[in-house]
Amino acid sequence: MSLIKLKQSLKKASNKEHAKILQRFFKTGPGEYGEGDVFIGIKVPPLRQIAKENLDLSFDEVQELLQSKIHEERLVALMILVLRYKKEDEKTREKIFKIYLKNTNRINNWDLVDLSAGEIVGAYLFDK
Questions:
Q1: Which positions ≥6 away from 107 have C-beta within 8 Å?
Q2: Are 74 and 7 in contact (CB under 8 A)?
Q3: Domain boundary assignment for the chain
Q4: What is the CATH number of domain 3-122?
Q5: How many CB atoms lie within 10 A of CB 117?
Q6: How many CB atoms are closer than 10 A to CB 79?
Q7: pTM of the model as a whole
Q8: Per-residue pLDDT averaged across 46-63, rounded?
């Protein structure tokens, strides 16, 4: 699947009312830890399904998602990286680890960290 189709899937799964709730819950106002994040209102189960359907995205496309202002785009990108990390060889795992570190400024919310830090950073550094 392509990045365009992934974004179409996200748009289709979005919910404006749920987005308003998430926007407040995740502290996105001025000076708050998630300042500037935009939510489109997608719950985690549909995001997990979209991630599973898009495991073939290139790392450049995942990188593009990680730079998005849309929180759910970054979340699905991290889900893809976590799923791929579990299946890949050591060389590719190192690449995923480096992508993660390169984008820590965009992994700015507790849910993004909880989902991915242990599964990528912790797993990579465990035996090092």
A1: 66, 74, 78, 100, 113, 116, 117
A2: no
A3: 3-122
A4: 1.25.10.90
A5: 16
A6: 23
A7: 0.94
A8: 97
